[in-house]
What we know:
The structure holds 2 protein chains of 2 kinds. By secondary structure, chain A is mostly beta strands. Chain A has a 22-stranded antiparallel β-barrel. Chain A has a 6-stranded mixed beta sheet with strand order 8-9-12-13-10-11. By secondary structure, chain B is mostly beta strands. In chain B, 8% of the residues lie in helices and 43% in strands. Chain B has helices at 2-21, 302-308, 397-400; strands at residues 30-39, 45-58, 64-68, 73-75, 78-87, 89-103, 106-121, 127-131, 141-147, 151-152, 158-159, 164-169, 174-176, 180-188, 203-211, 220-221, 226-230, 251-252, 273-277, 291-297, 310-319, 322-335, 339-343, 379-383, 401-406. In chain B, the strands form 5 sheets. In chain B, strands 14, 15, 19, 20, 21, 22 and 23 form a 7-stranded antiparallel beta sheet that branches. In chain B, strands 3-2-6-7-13-16 form a 6-stranded antiparallel beta sheet, with no helix packed on it. A 6-stranded mixed beta sheet of chain B has the order 18-17-12-9-24-25. At the A-B interface, strand 31, strand 38 and strand 39 of A face strand 19, helix 2, strand 21 and strand 22 of B.
Amino acid sequence: MHLLKFIIPALFVLAAQSVEAQSPIAGTVLDEETLEPVVGATITDANQGKVLTVTQADGTFTIPKNNEVKLKISSIGYKTLITKPTTNGRYLLKTEVSQLGEVVVTAQENRGLTTSSRIEKHAMEHLQPSSFTDILELLPGGRSIDPSLDAPNTIHIREISTGNSNYATSSLGTSFIVDGAPISTNANMQYIAGAWDDVATKRDNTNSGVDMRAISTDDIERVEIVRGIPSVEYGDLTSGLVKIERLRGGHDIKFRLKADMGSKLFYAAKDFEWEPRRLTLNLSADYLDAKADPRNSYENYKRLSISARMQKKWEKEDYGITFSSNLDFTKSLDNDKEDIDQTYSAEDSYKSSYDRFSLLSAVQLKMKQSSWFKSVDLSLSASLENDLIERTRLVQLSRMTIAPMSKEEGENDAIILPFKYTGHHKVEGKPLNVYAKLNARLQIPSNSISNSLLVGADWNLDKNLGRGQVFDPMKPVYTGISSRQRSLKDIPANHRLSAYAEESMKWPTVIGSLEVAAGIRATTILNLNDAYTMNGKIYWDPRLNIGYSLPQMTWFGKPAFIRIAAGIGQHTKMPTMEQLFPDLLYVDFIQLNYYHDNPDYRRINLMTYIVNPRNTALEPARNLKKEITLDINVGGNRLSITAFREKMTSGFRTQSHYQAYQYKQYDASGINAATLTAPPSLDNLPYTIVNELAGYGNYTNGSMTLKEGIEYTLETKRFPVILTRLTINGAYLRTTYNNSIVDSYRPSQVIDNRQIQYVGLYANDDGSVRQSFNTNFTIDTDIPRLKLGFSISAQCLWFTTSQRKEVSNYPVQYIAPDGTVHPWQDSDANDLYLRWLVRDYSPSQFEKNRVPFAMNVNLKVTKKLFGDRLHIAMFCNKLLDYTPDYDSRGTTIRRHVTPYFGLEMNIKL
Amino acid sequence: MKKLFSKSIMMMVAATLCLTSCSNDEPTPVIPTASLTIEVPANLENTAISSGKVVLTNVQTQQVTTVEGSQFIKDGNNYRVVLNNLEEGTYNIVASGHLDFTLNGVAGEKDFEVTSDNVKFSESSSALKMTVSTFTAQGGFVISEIFFTGTTTPENKSYSGDQYIIITNNSDVTLYADSIAVLESAFLTNTKQDYNPDIMSTHFSVQACYMIPGDGKSVPVEPGQSITIAVNAINHTTEQPNSIDLSGADFEFYDETSNPNYTDPEGAAPNLDKWYCYTATIYQFHSRGFNSMAIAKMKTDKEDWLANYVYDATYLFVFGDFSKLMTKKGIYKVPNEWILDGVNLSIESMREWNVLDASIDAGWTFCGKVDKDETRFNKSVIRKKDANGKLIDTNNSTNDFTPEAPASLFNK
């Protein structure tokens, strides 16, 4: 804040000087309905027809002092206003098509240059969401799905996800920003090392981005989901941006009670606003209790959010200062415990909790007088999580098993676990994120082009202060664990520094107006040692959006507007902490496995190798987006079509590697069990040296995700008599996944007492193409007189297809037991051992699989009672469906649809 | 004349000889070449008699004629004993010996002793037959018990290291268990697929083949005796009080590995020779019993089998809203003729088909009635016995087995 104290007066002095020098007439042009600035409106001398100036990004303009002048203010989409100027006047423009008082219950295409969906409070009230996941139904290509709150929900914008963790960069690379503060998941290390059971692995969300279950929707005033190319102000993303703005001000006491087939939600809030003091305070809390299966109370998900948000404004003649501060707490808790009455393993349980405290402070200084300097924003946010996974399991071993103890490379005697114990495994993560951002908006004074220059920088720190995997090595829950405990504090903090500049221009001319937003963002990752390729490297993200609006036309007697916009932009997502600093792997080979009835005489001798799976050549994932949008508005009926292509060739994936190791294989057959008085000695035991291949995985940039498609939205005006509005939206999406690197596979078959000692190497060994085409027809009716609103949405999925990329059954090379690599010969397919490297994909597995038409009809109703104080809503998704049977290669496939419904009550006092 | 003379000389000599034994009788006629044929059961192959002996005792004279086995002439499955210059008369005959043979390809052996009393040898009945009827060599090795469910710990968790299979010699001859393989089906009885090509009528598709090692005659099993093959031949009760002491098992399924996640305890029992297994992890039986089991006499060597008995099947896989033509590799096949016995396992609520040809097993047996039935543990499928104590083998395990029987090796 010291810095700010110095900067503000300095800037003010500069701004004040320019005001005095020109002494012009200043004014602001605003949209009459939204009171948002009208950018690029042309100010003309009404008498002489001479263009004087255009309004700037904040809607302001200045003209030389002239008492006689009469102003004509015009802008595409607005009714022209002719008025006399006043000092510091506010000029309100009426839109050509009034939307005043309109209740919009669908997502709306943003009117800005980037393609994004805007979802307002009304739409959310009508949708009745339990978590942020439910809102995504409103995006083009979205479709209502039943909430599944028993596992993390990740976002997939413009994508038909397979759920494959090798293609999770798309969700990892979608940035969530709440009131200006990012939700960072870069230091999320909440995975249980060695876990193999579904209860633990299905809730592992590391390297997959934000878990949307944890985002409560109740305080949200507005969400903007940027599907296209966001401003360079936003970084560390590849695929999308979700900007959440929460409510500020008001005087209500609000309660919300919601129940659906799987969850219950309770929300309470109190809003304060002291208008004369320009101070607001919003306090809220919500609680969600969801069950995977309503009959099973032992597997559940709970969320508690508490939020306090204040804002204070100081309005001076020449400048305004806004100070905002948020304090938030979210607790997200997954529970999965065995039912004591139903099963025997009463002690077995899984619990995963995320406690997130976050603090945001932001200050904005906005200059009111027209000058080159418009505003400066500084925001600081910090979040500290207390993440804890606790897994307890009664372990009863079926055979002699070793404890994961040895931390040294070399020969060692393993510690043999008892056959029965209760294992506890904890994962303690304390991710700390600190984020600071400084933005300044400048403008080059111009009378013909409205422009705004954004310059800024941000710095992000991710550190994990937790202890990581915590367990007693003598009581491991998962015995096959190949890593050892390490404190997460020892992992260096992840620092990311970015700077950016973006020029936005609007140039109104008689042949239409041209808008350009061109920016560049530079990002570097700090605190990495020299070994990493990324060390000291700067990654540049140039992004460009251009729009051209035709002059206003008249179609069918109605005002018509057409805009064509196109964009291209590069996006960069840095690897996460886990991807940069994975756990060391301990590769053990049994040299002697001696069992004796007497536990004291047992012996397992190992050869331990330590492998560091760190890939220093790892680079950020980069996504190049291109898109073109056509936007037609005829009398308030708007059609927007976007074609896009996003290619990310460097997505993160795990690649397996094999190498040869040597160990001694002792021959225990000569040991006489009856005469032992201690574990058998190795000294005179015969052995042979054996080669063995063993594999490990590391992170590489080998995943390609190509997203192509067409998104469309048609929104009509509300038809007067039937009070109904039609929204048709949907998308054709085509997602191509591809692995660009060689992958390896070792058959697990045992031939003549030994596992096959060869590893096949297969080129480009994974991929698929998926397509879907959907249209949602939503009619919503709003009857103000009855305070009744309802919507019927027919969600048609015309088809979906999936097709695996054809991969060869034959390897390109193979690794022999001694680690040497050999090219594959055709004759190898007849070799007793090598022929197992020929895999058994049949051509039909690469055929396109097509699922034909399916339609669900959803109904939502809202009713206001008692002077809007009580608001009752219900929804029934899949109330009706049309999902005909179809034939797939001679087999009839039957599809079943089960309705999902819920009810909620909102009280406003 | 000369002929007559010599004949009369011979008769005189004979009469003189006769006088010395049977006083005052006429000389006993002698049969120049009598023969005795020892018939062994026709279902035996590659028979060989050792220590053979035929002893003929003349009832009148108590004279004993002995023919050693070295003089037996093998004629197909029969052995002919040529008796030169046998006196006509009534004899008590004892034929004995040690018979080696193969029965359905399995090496076997049997000491035999057959007697025939008051048998008349004369000029007109000089060729006699004796049938070795003290054994029939019917039956052979059968699976008498499969304990595939495992036990439960005091905490009621399942413990599967104590699974075992018992093979019993159900014949009345000693049979050798060497080179008999324990086979596990590649296909599941709860998932029917139309595999193409369909080889079930000629071959059994297997995902595991573990063979009893030996030189062909290393593992004799007496009639009615059994061998126990344990997944882990150790005393499980030292770690798991509810389990079974299998340290006395005859063989074990041992999985040699360097991977510490799959430590297989090696008991004292000799290990089976692991010809092929679908997995490099620990081998265990399917604890719900969705794989059928069989035993077969491997009639070729390991190299030949591994190289030449591969089966690549295709089938149409249907799941939810998609179907795909799949190739299933990693299947080996064993000709049905090699199979000595097989048992289909399944459970009623899940069963879709039998994966053994009906000629091997036309039925199926089970432990547990629904999927993941917790009550199945500690139970076994055990072959029934008939009134004579013989195991019933009608090639229909629905009839031949007692399902859900308490495992027989508890408290032994």
